[in-house]
Amino acid sequence: MFLPFSQIAVATLLGIAGGYYIYRPYFEPVQKSSDQQNQDFILLEHKSI
């Protein structure tokens, strides 16, 4: 059973895109917790006054 190159290329691209979509949080930088974001916002408010 032989698949045409175009079908192999599409399957490869879909596999790479699907893998990136599933493992996207692994590649993104760590987000701050909501408490730390609130503290940063409060500090920025006080500095601008």
Description:
With 49 residues, this protein is an all-alpha fold. It has one domain. The longest helix is centred in the N-terminal third of the chain and has 18 residues, at 5-22. It has helices at residues 5-22, 24-27, 34-48. Helix content is 76%, strand content 0%. Keywords: Membrane, Transmembrane, Transmembrane helix. It holds the Pfam family PIGBOS1.
Give the tally of β-strands.
Answer: 0
Percent range for β-strand residues? under 5%
For the record, the count of structural domains works out to: 1
**Number of helices, where a helix is a run of at least 4 consecutive DSSP H or I residues:** 3
Distance between the termini: 72 Å
- Helical residue percent band: over 70%
> What structural class results from the helix and strand content?
mainly alpha
**Rounded mean pLDDT score:** 77
Cα-atom radius of gyration: 22 Å
Return the string of H and E elements.
HHH
Low-confidence region ranges: none
How would the global form be characterised? Answer: rod-shaped
Set down the secondary structure blueprint.
Blueprint: H1 5-22, H2 24-27, H3 34-48
Could you provide a short overview of the structure?
It comes from Gasterosteus aculeatus aculeatus. This protein has 49 residues and is mainly α. The protein contains 3 helices and no strands.
